[in-house]
Task: structure prediction
Amino acid sequence: RDSVASRGLGDVYKRQLSRFAINIQKKGLEYYKIKYNEHKIDLADPLAMAVMINDEDTNYKSCNIKIILDGDERGKDLISFNKNGNIKLATQVSRSNFLNTLKKSLV
Result:
């Protein structure tokens, strides 16, 4: 709990979200180490981290992704969905699973 009266709910929320991002990053690192026996992962997006830990009710579509490396559109992703795609892209994420993962990390 935030006992400092001068702090608003925004400060409390930011602190909780920061704590969540740190905690879920740790969980992601632990999971990745167990699953792949490697110490390589960095998911800055809390939603992506939550999906990695629990992808129940997450919908995926196969696709190919090309990243433009040169010119004015450098860094742009070109996604083409197809059944033979070599990448599995999350297209819909369970809100309740994300919120449950968030709640567990804040306890």
